[in-house]
Amino acid sequence: MTARVDVLTVGYADERVASTVVLVRSGESVVVVDPGMAASRRAILDPLRGLGVEPDEVTDVVFSHHHPDHTLNAALFARARYHDHWAIYQDDVWTDRPADGFEVAPDVRLMATPGHSPEDITTLVTTDEGLVACTHLWWSADGPDVDPLAADQGQLEESRGRLLALGPVRIIPGHGAPFEPA
Predict the structure, then answer these.
(1) Which residues contact 81 (CB under 8 A, 6 or more apart)?
(2) Which residue stretches of the chain are H helix?
(3) Are strands 170-172 and 130-134 parallel, antiparallel or unpaired?
C-alpha cells in the first residue's frame, strides 16, 4: 500500500489567512505539511484525532516555506523532525541537507519549487490514485495566476511547469481545497 493523504483543514487567503494543513501516512511515518495559521489549534488537532492520530505520533513536519501562515503551529508536534528547504531539525540537532529529492518517508519526497519564495519546496506523495503534490505554487484552484507575493514570478512559473510535467493527479494548494490539474 502506498501513502495516504488527508486534508486536516482547508486554508484560505482573503480578509483572514490560514494554510491548508495536510496529513500524510506512509509506512511508520506520520507527516504533517504546513501546520500554519488556522482559526484555532482545534482546527488542526480535532481532524487529526478524528483520523486516529495523536500529536505525539507525528514523526515529521514539512514547511513549504517559512512564512508564518505555514509554520505557526509547528510546536503542536513535539516529537517530530522538521523539514525545510535546507535542513532537518529535531530538538537541538540541525542537519544540513538539500531538500530536492529528499525522501521524508516511503512514498514521500521533497522537490525544490522556488518562486513564491526562493526557499519553497513541494511535498510529493505517491498514493494508490497517483502523485499528490502539497505546494504553494498555487494559492487555490482559482489562482491567482500571478502570485502578488512571489519573490520571482518567472521562477514560480518554471516550478509549476516542472511539477505539472510529473503528472500529479491532485494538487493541494497553500490556501485552498485540493484540485485536479487541468
Answers:
(1) 59, 60, 61, 88, 89, 90
(2) 42-50, 153-164
(3) parallel
| Mean pLDDT of the region 17-46 | 98
Residue 118 CB neighbours (<10 A): 12
Q: Which CATH superfamily is domain 4-172 in?
A: Ribonuclease Z/Hydroxyacylglutathione hydrolase-like (3.60.15.10)
Beta-bridge partners for 121 = 112
For the stretch 121-151, pLDDT in tens is: 999 999 999 999 999 999 999 989 999 999 9
Q: What are the backbone dihedrals phi and psi of residue 95, each rounded to the nearest 5 degrees, phi first?
A: -115, 110
Per domain, the residue ranges of the chain are 4-172
Residue 1 has pLDDT above 90, yes or no: no
Q: Is the dihedral of CA 75, 114, 142, 51 positive or negative?
A: negative
